[in-house]
Design goal:
The protein folds into two domains: 111 residues, Roll (Urease, subunit C, domain 1), CATH 2.30.40; 286 residues, Alpha-Beta Barrel (TIM Barrel), CATH 3.20.20. The radius of gyration is 22 Å and the shape is globular. It has 429 residues and is of the alpha/beta class. Helix 7 links the parallel strand 12 and strand 13. It contains 13 helices and 20 strands. It has an eight-stranded mixed β-sheet with strand order 3-2-1-4-17-18-19-20, with no helix packed on it. A five-stranded parallel β-sheet has the order 11-12-13-14-15. Strands 5-7-8 form a three-stranded parallel β-sheet.
């Protein structure tokens, strides 16, 4: 048996990744401006864009991907999801609390892998994962994707949600310990600092807090402490808000984003616009599959209209954490287009919200997301023009992430994402 030198095996992945890829894009969309450019060529080397334009010479030997009949866009973003939580969506038998007790961290990590793959299949190359992931299953998911063990979107994860005693739960005294690890109790300044540091230590990339899930919700000064402590490590703070008073406190504290929109109104929207606070609304669509009443759905869409009219920074976000028979997590998420269309927001603006705004609320716009020279090559392609009909995004036929094809001609081809070992180092956090 002929033995090959070890360096040759180590060099093969590098040689493969260094091959130039040339994409012929029939229409290249810029969501920031709401425009598209015809007949563009995108060159990709080592997983990053190296040239973009109409007069780009394709190097000899490059792999050519023909998307000349398609509309090419940056990948989509869901700014509020729970990939490691899947409970039955049934108003008569809502098993969310039972799920957190019965499902181990391990099984929830496996659910997160499956949900992440279906999100990529639907064109979502970035997911902001905001807690409810048991004992840091969200970090395990992110690291596994970054190390190349599994395919999946870029994950901006929060670790364990931090709240006043009990989080969103109302346990009996004998079962108080069941709150953890769904929620981290933090009721004093020292506990707040320690909770933030714990999440950062265990891999969080954003900090999520429960602003007002209890009557003893966080004060303005307590939230300012969260913001300051997270900022030491370059992280932002997202706040789950349930009450109008809580929203006002969060706005005064200068929180990065307000999660959910049920407590927001014209007053809060005007204040958010003034301070540049993100609205991550999670407005559930109305259909036979979903539970909101007509009245609630109407309130949601009126709120979206008001936020848009006030110039609030808005993100596409779903709070998807449940199962619907016959639908993947990706199917459920893209169906939230119903809400944005019902609010009368123009297609170009929806696409911008789903891409450009998504990168910004995730605070990665200079690192990943836009189709820009020097950034990782993430993109999707659809047959129709989403600038004219946003429902074109329901049929994503091509997905690329980090210069690797995940989906081609409507068929997933994730095998290129699997590696024989970590690609970003063992200590990725």
């Amino acid at each position: 048996m002929t033995r090959r030198p070890l360096w040759l095996f180590l060099a093969v992945p590098a040689l493969l990744s260094a091959q130039t890829i040339a994409i012929r894009a029939g229409h290249l969309i810029d969501p920031e401006t709401g425009t598209s450019a015809a007949n563009q060529v995108l060159l990709i080397e080592a997983g990053k864009f190296t040239a973009i334009g109409s007069n780009i010479a394709i190097p000899q030997g490059a792999e050519i991907i023909d998307l000349s009949q398609a509309y090419v866009s940056p990948g989509l973003v869901d700014a509020h999801n729970h990939l490691a939580l899947t409970y039955k969506k049934d108003p008569e038998n809502n098993s969310y609390y039972l799920t957190t007790v019965m499902d181990s961290t391990a099984i929830r990590a496996i659910q997160a892998v499956s949900n992440g793959i279906t999100m990529m299949n639907s064109g979502f190359t970035v997911v902001r994962d905001l807690g409810n992931a048991a004992n840091y299953a969200d970090t395990a998911l992110r690291v596994a994707i970054e190390q190349g063990w599994i395919p999946g979107p870029t994950v901006i994860n929060s670790g364990i949600i931090i709240g006043g005693m009990g989080g969103q739960f109302f346990p009996v005294p004998e079962r108080a310990s069941l709150v953890y690890p769904e929620y981290l109790d933090a009721d004093t300044p020292d506990e707040i600092i320690k909770a933030v540091r714990k999440n950062i230590l265990y891999g969080a990339k954003v900090i999520k807090i429960m602003v007002d899930a209890k009557s003893y919700g966080y004060t303005v000064d307590e939230m300012k402490l969260f913001v300051a402590e997270a900022a030491k490590s370059g992280l932002k703070v997202a706040g789950h808000v349930q009450t109008h008073a809580g929203a006002l406190r969060a706005i005064e504290a200068g929180i990065w984003s307000i999660e959910h929109s049920g407590a927001l109104d014209d007053q809060t929207h005007k204040l958010m616009a003034q301070k540049g606070i993100w609205r991550v609304g999670t407005e559930t669509p109305l259909s036979t599959f979903y539970s909101p009443s007509e009245a609630r759905f109407q309130r949601q869409t009126e709120g979206m209209k008001n936020a848009y009219a006030n110039g609030v920074k808005m993100a596409f976000s779903t709070d998807a954490d449940y199962f619907i028979p016959g639908m993947t997590r990706g199917d459920i998420v893209i169906d939230f287009l119903r809400s944005w269309k019902a609010a009368g927001i123009p297609a170009p603006e929806i696409l911008k919200i789903m891409t450009t705004n998504g990168y910004k609320v995730c605070d990665i716009q200079d690192k990943r997301g836009p189709i820009r020279i020097g950034l990782p090559a993430d993109l999707i392609a659809v047959r129709g023009n989403p600038l004219e009909n946003i429902d074109a995004l329901r049929e994503v036929n091509f997905v690329m992430k980090d210069g690797m094809v995940f989906k081609r001609d409507g068929v997933m081809t994730p095998e290129k994402f699997f590696h024989s070992g970590p690609v970003n180092g063992w200590r990725t956090r």
